[in-house]
Write a structure and sequence with these properties.
Distance between the termini of chain B: 18 Å
Number of strands of chain A: 19
Shape of chain B: globular
Largest interface: A-B, 22 and 25 residues
Number of strands of chain B: 9
Number of helices of chain A: 12
CATH class of the largest domain in chain B: Alpha Beta
Largest sheet of chain B: 5 strands, parallel
Number of helices of chain B: 11
Oligomer: heterodimer
CATH topology of the largest domain in chain A: TIM Barrel
Structural class of chain B: alpha/beta
CATH class of the largest domain in chain A: Alpha Beta
Structural class of chain A: alpha/beta
Strand order of the largest sheet of chain B: 7-6-5-8-9
């Protein structure tokens, strides 16, 4: 598959949504770029994609995707994950490094980049902060950065040792990369498998308190102040974390953060039937935390919605609740959940900001421009905000089925996705 | 809908009363020369124990046999589980043999709920014989039955019951609090904050941290087992300190009101949560609890399986 295909596409009849606002316009795509934006553009041999009643925005960017390859191909591959991403409107995803082996060396970075070359979206490869994600020695960040790695994280675990995290931040500062933290103090979390509160207490399930997350947010804010380096907080889930970041940003600290669609839509009450599909890390929290995450996304404290798409094969999820691996699918439902969870039907610009150009800005990608205009790269996402659909796990493109939204009716669906000028999704069907 | 017993709430107050009433009949059966009735002849009851348990497993198996059910016992050490078979595959394999009830014990909270979901539509009743820290409903039922039989009030209505010790990690405590409260008792949890659940929102009970303040005003003092590993988790400083602060020693036992009962789900750590001489007092009804266990489990199996049978007959007709 060539980098830029031969496609000439006319996205007709939609409302263009980008950083400049909203305007009814057709979008002509040619040679991998937006060729023209305007009313009633001539077809002139282009393939016409109907966008009537739809928003036509920049392609979505996911800062947090587990593609599982190499090592856990029974759960997901770069190909299947990128197909799920495309169906969800994503044109760029950041592959997390907790693979087997982990992405902590040039060889594994090259392998994932090679797999990503033919994927249905752009695969940004993230690297581990520490060798083996073991939290003991720094991974070769400069070497990996030269291969194109823009984000480093030990995601799945946080870097427990404050001194090591300080050194990582200092060392990475001149590399122009982002250090992203999975905020979980393991001593305080103490192996808890859901949020510690009324539900965990009643259910007799070991819980982890909100403070296990907040303590590490506090520490890393202090380290950001100490080192001057930027820290990105992954999947923030508690009211306390959101408030800490709000104050840190007000004080001018260089921090960014993300939240997941599930933390803004679900609460720990969902765990009450011991269905392991609701087991996730950080865990689902009470309604007050969910509301704080929503508020943080709406007031700009939280920069991005990121999916933490975490496929697990069925057998793994059929273990007892405390033994099943944490994680849930996210790519194919993120748009609808963000739209519905934040009530953004009347504010598509904010919706696309949270899912597209703001996450792009966290990584310093060109898509941070948030522009659908002549000359922009043709990474586009077309959303029908009115379509209602029921999530059917069997019809998802992911290799795994662990969506917590099975059977739920959602509103808003990605209709077409254009990646580098190629129509990878047309009318909700992946084209390859 | 297949009848399960996953937690005491599944029965509701009427169900609990029905089971306790049935238990009277089962106690009577147990006193006969041949303590056996054909109530569940042709039915198969399987016990599936993923965690060591002597008394609960034997108690269920004895109960099933006294009702003339066929019994199968499945324990982890001798099973395909050690060959890596998944929980779901194991359960569906057993179900395929044609069984009526599955009595399950597992170290993880919630496993009986997962089994019930996988067995939906199969007609198999799941009986929770203890899941993790969560529930142990037949223990609560036998404890309630024991209190009714042994306390002079003859009922739990208005009784003051202290549940003392490691509530946080105790399935017995969780089932008992809700069962005792359902039957009208006022329950007080007593223990250091480290051994109480992080949240007691929605729990029908009071909390106290000083056993000496409570012990003079309770009708039942229910002691929980303290697991040795709690020391390594920094939950209590030492067994010695725990025994001195929360153990029921003779001095404290002598302050219990006249007629008050001392109870323990077993196995006891004599000298830790209960002093050896207290365990042997007449007011300590710990062996009564064990004896009642068989009758209560007979009542539970009969209640669940005959209810199902009646529905089948109705469907056939």
């Amino acid at each position: 598959m060539a980098e830029t295909g031969p496609w000439k596409l006319l996205l007709r009849g939609g409302t263009v949504v980008d950083g400049d606002g909203l305007r009814p316009a057709d979008v002509l795509v040619e040679a991998g770029a937006v060729a023209a934006v305007g009313p009633d553009l001539p077809v002139d041999g282009a393939v016409v994609l109907d966008c009537g009643g739809c928003w036509v925005g920049p392609g979505l960017v996911d800062l947090h995707t587990h593609l599982r390859q190499p090592g856990r191909e029974e759960a997901e591959t770069v190909e299947t994950g990128s197909r799920a991403a495309a169906l969800g409107g994503f044109t760029t995803v950041v592959a997390m490094p907790n693979t087997t082996p982990p992405i902590d060396s040039a060889a594994v970075v090259r392998e994932v980049l090679a797999l990503g070359a033919t994927a249905l979206c752009t695969i940004e490869v993230s690297g581990a902060i520490t060798v083996g994600r073991a939290g003991e020695r720094l991974a070769p960040m400069a070497e990996l950065a030269r291969l194109g790695v823009r984000m480093f994280t030990d995601d799945g675990t946080g870097v427990q040792d404050g001194r090591l995290m300080r050194r990582a931040l200092e060392y990475a500062r001149p590399l122009g990369v982002v250090l992203a933290q999975h905020c979980e103090d393991e001593a305080l979390a103490a192996g808890g498998v859901m949020h510690e509160g009324a539900w965990s207490s009643r259910m007799g399930v070991p819980g982890q308190p909100a403070e296990a997350e907040e303590v590490m947010v506090m520490r890393d804010l202090a380290l950001a102040r100490l080192t001057g380096a930027t820290v990105h907080f992954q999947h923030l889930s508690t009211a306390g974390s959101v408030e800490l970041v709000r104050r840190a940003k007000a004080a001018g600290l260089p921090v960014t953060c993300e939240a997941t669609p599930h933390h803004l839509t679900l609460t720990d009450e969902a765990c009450q039937g011991y269905d392991t599909v609701f087991r996730v890390n950080p865990p689902l929290r009470p309604a007050a935390d969910r509301d704080a995450v929503r508020a943080g996304l709406l007031d700009g404290t939280i920069d991005a919605v990121a999916t933490d798409h975490a496929p697990h094969d069925q057998e793994a999820k059929e273990r007892p609740f405390d033994q099943a691996p944490p994680g849930m699918l996210g790519l194919e439902t993120a748009m609808a959940l963000t739209l519905g969870g934040l009530g953004l039907a009347d504010d598509p610009q904010r919706l696309f900001a949270l899912l597209s150009w703001q996450p792009a800005a966290v990584l310093g990608l060109a898509a941070a421009a948030g522009s659908v205009a002549a000359g922009a790269p043709a990474d586009l996402c077309v959303v029908d905000p009115d379509e209602r659909w029921v999530v059917d796990p069997r019809r998802l493109a992911s290799r795994s089925r662990n969506t917590p939204y099975a059977g739920r009716e959602l509103q808003g669906r990605v209709r077409h996705t254009i990646h580098r000028g190629e129509p990878v999704v047309i009318d909700q069907e992946a084209q390859r | 809908m297949t009848a399960h017993l996953l937690c005491v709430d599944d029965l509701g107050r009427d169900g609990v009363e029905a089971v306790l009433k049935l238990t009277d009949s089962m106690v009577e059966v147990g006193r006969r020369d041949i303590p056996k009735v054909p109530a569940l002849r042709g039915r198969t009851v399987v016990s599936l124990f993923y965690e060591d348990s002597t008394r609960t497993r034997l108690s269920f198996e004895t109960a099933a046999k006294r009702l003339s059910a066929d019994t199968m016992s499945f324990s982890v050490s001798t099973s395909a589980v050690q060959k890596g078979e998944s929980l779901r595959d194991t359960v569906l394999t057993i179900e395929a043999m044609g069984i009526d009830a599955l009595v399950v014990r597992h170290a993880s909270s919630g496993v009986p709920w997962q089994l019930a979901a996988w067995l939906a539509g199969s007609g198999v009743s799941v009986v929770n014989a203890g899941d993790g820290w969560h529930e142990h409903p037949t223990q609560a039922l036998l404890d309630a039955y024991t209190i009714r039989g042994e306390h002079k009030a003859g009922s739990l209505e208005g009784l003051r019951i202290a549940v003392v010790g490691d509530v946080k990690h105790s399935r017995v405590a969780r089932s008992n609090v809700f069962c005792f409260a359902m039957l009208g008792a006022s329950v007080t949890l007593v223990g250091p904050p480290t051994l109480l659940p992080a949240s007691l929102e929605g729990w029908p009970c009071e909390v106290a941290h000083d056993l000496d303040e409570v012990v003079g005003e309770v009708d039942v003092c229910y002691l929980l087992r303290l697991q040795q590993e709690r020391m390594t988790e920094a939950l209590v400083p030492s067994l010695r300190e725990y025994a001195a602060t929360y153990g029921l020693d003779l001095a404290r036992a002598q302050r219990l009101p006249a007629g008050a009962l001392v109870m323990h789900p077993g196995p006891m750590n004599r000298g830790v949560e209960i002093a050896p001489e207290v365990a042997d007092l007449p007011s300590a009804v710990i062996t009564r609890q064990v004896a009642n266990g068989v009758a209560v489990r007979m009542a539970v199996l009969f209640h669940l399986l005959t209810a199902t049978a009646e529905r089948e007959v109705r469907l056939d007709g």
